[in-house]
Amino acid sequence: MIRLGYADTPLGQVHYAEAGSGPPLVLLHQTPRSWDEFREAIPLLADGRRVIAPDTPGFGASARIPEHSIETYAAGILGLLDALGVDGFDLAGHHTGGVVAAEIAARAPERVRRLVLSSTPYIDEAARKRRASRPAIDAVDERPDGAHLTELWRRRAAFYPEGRPDLLTRFVRDALQVWPDVEHGHAAVSAYRMEERVGLTACPVLCIGASADPYAFPELGPLTERIPHAETAVIEGGGVPLEFQAEEFARLTAAFLART
């Protein structure tokens, strides 16, 4: 059973989902999502583990924050784990969540036991320059007739499997929770100096790539090369959303955590 709760942190209340018991595993979502991105994966990973999936501060049902940066997100997640009495933990992040996870592993290496980076982009100076001219992914102009909601749906539809409007509905619901600030997470990723931080990761690392992800999959190699002792795995046909590849993500993650 998935339980929901709030914890007080220096950044305000952080909302989280939790299931299972045992060694902690923390799951960090992409933006502008919430813990709901892991709804299918949590039960698959909670056998013998205490799975904690927070809403990143500023997203989902967590408190809004005055500054959006990867460093702020990481501080908020560590504040949540302090409030929950969690010291050492395994950590997995998807897309933006992977970038946040890399920062957490760099700033608190004594607490992160193992790290899974799923569809995580590699951000260096060249990537920051490319992103500076890239059109916004989710930002659309609000219109009196609500047409902006249809536009948001259409922009994301290409990343979702046909015949699964329920998954896209969940994305739109999360995006509307932080409207109109849907691009803050993407901007935080684009500003992050990842090349200065990711090499500080000291624990075993698994980098998972989704072959149909046009944003992160081309960066799987560069990311892995810059992390000492990292290994890779590929989800064939996997894309940007985690939900429809949750079973394979959970299988790869559980196998990695079990043997290291």
Automatic annotation (TrEMBL):
Q: Which GO terms describe its cellular component?
A: membrane
Domain AB hydrolase-1 spans what residues? 23-133
One Pfam annotation reads: Abhydrolase_1
Top-level taxon of origin: Bacteria
Hydrolase as UniProt keyword: yes
Which keywords fit this entry according to its UniProt record? Hydrolase
The record's section on InterPro entries has: AB_hydrolase_1 (IPR000073), AB_hydrolase_fold (IPR029058), AB_hydrolase_sf (IPR050266)
State the Gene3D superfamilies in the record.
Answer: alpha/beta hydrolase (3.40.50.1820)
User: What GO molecular function terms would the record report?
Assistant: hydrolase activity
The answer to whether keyword Ligase applies is no
User: Which PANTHER family has this protein been placed in?
Assistant: HYDROLASE, PUTATIVE (AFU_ORTHOLOGUE AFUA_2G14860)-RELATED, MONOACYLGLYCEROL LIPASE
The name this protein carries in UniProt is Alpha/beta hydrolase
Upper taxonomic classification of the species?
Bacteria, Bacillati, Actinomycetota, Actinomycetes, Streptosporangiales
